[in-house]
């Protein structure tokens, strides 16, 4: 079973549902597997826990 993992910002339930639905449909179509075989994991990451260019995202303006 393919597993798609998304690391990103906090999302509301509607955003998560749309993301899971579209990723599943697209992966199923490309890989030629049933949608039931696709697993999507969403890991929400606080901006205090992400650094880009030597700075925390929470400190960037």
Text of the CATH class: Alpha Beta
Number of domains: 1
- Whole-Å distance between the termini? 40 Å
Strands across the major sheet, in which order?
1-2
Main sheet overview: 2 strands, parallel
User: What is the count of β-strands?
Assistant: 4
Radius of gyration: 15 Å
SSE blueprint:
Elements: E1 3-8, H1 13-31, E2 39-44, E3 51-52, E4 55-56
Parallel strand pairs: 1-2
Antiparallel strand pairs: 3-4
Structure characterization notes:
- With 61 residues, the chain is an alpha+beta fold.
- The chain has one domain (3-59): Macrophage Migration Inhibitory Factor.
- Helices cover 31% and strands 26% of the residues.
- It has one helix at 13-31, and strands at residues 3-8, 39-44, 51-52, 55-56.
- The strands form 2 sheets. It has a two-stranded parallel sheet. A two-stranded antiparallel ribbon has the order 3-4.
- Helix 1 links the parallel strand 1 and strand 2.
- The longest helix is centred in the middle third of the chain and has 19 residues, at 13-31.
Q: What would you say about this model in short?
A:
The chain is built from one helix and four strands, in the order βαβββ. It has one helix at residues 13-31, and strands at residues 3-8, 39-44, 51-52, 55-56.
Annotation keywords:
61 residues; alpha+beta; Macrophage Migration Inhibitory Factor; two-stranded parallel sheet; two-stranded antiparallel ribbon
